[in-house]
Design a protein that fits this description.
Shape: flat
Largest sheet: none
Structural class: mainly alpha
Pfam family, one: NUMOD3
Protein name: Nuclease associated modular domain-containing protein
Organism: Gordonia tangerina
Helix content: 40-55%
Strand content: under 5%
Bound molecules: zinc ion
InterPro entries: NUMOD3
Length: 81
C-alpha cells in the first residue's frame, strides 16, 4: 500500500469514520479487559510515561507532545544568553 493510500485511509477512519465509533464493549468484554490489566502497573501520567520511555532512553518522537515541548524548551535555553 502506498504512503498516500495509508494517509488517506488513516484520515477517513478517524472519529466517526472509525468502525467502532460510538460503540462500547459489552460488559463481558470489559470484564475480560479489566481482568487482564489488573496488577499491571500503568504510568500515572502521560508525562511520566514520556520521562520513562523517551527521556531516560534518549528517544525522541515527534508524535509525543512532551518530546516536542522539551525540544522547544532546550532550544530556547541554548539560544538565549
Ligand atoms: Zn516523549
Amino acid at each position: 500500500m502506498s504512503a498516500e493510500s495509508r494517509q488517506r485511509l488513516s484520515e477517513q477512519r478517524r472519529g466517526s469514520g472509525n468502525p467502532n465509533f460510538g460503540r462500547r464493549a459489552s460488559d463481558e468484554t470489559r470484564a475480560k479487559t479489566s481482568a487482564t490489566r489488573k496488577g499491571r502497573p500503568q504510568p500515572s501520567s502521560k508525562r511520566s510515561a514520556h520521562t520513562r520511555y523517551h527521556t531516560n532512553k534518549g528517544v525522541f518522537k515527534d508524535t509525543c507532545r512532551y518530546c516536542v515541548e522539551d525540544a522547544a524548551t532546550t532550544t530556547n535555553e541554548e539560544s538565549g544568553s
